[in-house]
Design goal:
By secondary structure, the chain is an alpha+beta fold. The protein has 6 helices and 6 strands. Helix content is about 30%, strand content about 20%. Belongs to the FliM family.
Length: about 220
């Protein structure tokens, strides 16, 4: 794992914004302790992800900051290395490599034939509910950008460059008409304009059932 990802995780765990993670140094003992706790939880998630196909036990044996010092396998052993590009928070790119011993793959490759690829055990409803809650809790901590779009229109470039402070631009949408609410640039709801506690506000009118409905609504209501 690249150090940028490690420092980003540490900064976020400690309540930081995840900035300034391009540090050219080794981890401190405290930072190693934080990463250990994080990867112990990741190891448990890896074990859970395999449970419907294969009984495995995933544990964290330790953290090594210098890959050249690892003594897990002999130089002659066959391994499969999976390299992945990781993006965190839409502002950080890093790499993550997973090394899988060939002996492990020899033991499980037959289980992933078209016939054996079907789950050999029913999911545990209680465990599935716990995983669903964990995912939901993590998602609920995400920040969303919400936009309330009153109207959209086109303007010629020569008119645009002549605009000055104080100019009035008339719109074609009535004040009591529905406006479009977008979440992370995705149409999500219609709403009415209003006020509350001496501040502009919107009152949700209708939650769009899917993205296609919202996109179609936006196109129909956009004036040109």
């Amino acid at each position: 794992m690249s150090t940028t990802i490690g420092f980003y995780i540490i900064d976020r765990v400690l309540g930081g914004p995840g900035n300034g993670v391009n540090l050219n140094r080794d981890y401190t003992e405290i930072e190693i302790s934080i990463l250990t706790k994080v990867f112990e939880r990741i190891a448990q998630r890896v074990q859970d992800s395999w449970q419907n196909n294969l009984e495995i036990e995933s544990t964290l044996n330790g953290i090594e900051t210098n890959p050249q010092l690892l003594q897990i396998l002999s130089p002659d052993d066959i391994v499969v290395i999976v390299m992945m590009s990781v993006r965190l928070g839409n502002k950080l790119d890093g790499t993550l490599s997973i090394c899988i011993p060939g002996e492990f793959l020899d033991d499980v490759v037959d289980r992933f034939s078209p016939k054996a690829a079907r789950p050999n055990k029913r999911p545990d409803p209680e465990k599935e509910e716990i995983k669903r809650r964990v995912v939901l809790e993590n998602v609920c901590e995400s920040n969303l950008e919400i936009e309330a779009i009153f109207d959209q229109f086109t303007m010629q470039l020569k008119e645009f460059i002549q605009l000055q402070p104080g100019d009035v631009i008339p719109l074609n949408k009535p004040l009591d008409d529905d406006i479009l609410v977008k979440v992370n640039e995705i149409p999500w709801s219609t709403a009415k304009l209003g006020e509350t506690k001496q501040k502009k506000a919107i009152k949700l009118s209708h939650i769009l059932s899917n993205g296609n409905e919202g996109i179609q609504w936006g196109k129909n209501k956009t004036s040109s």
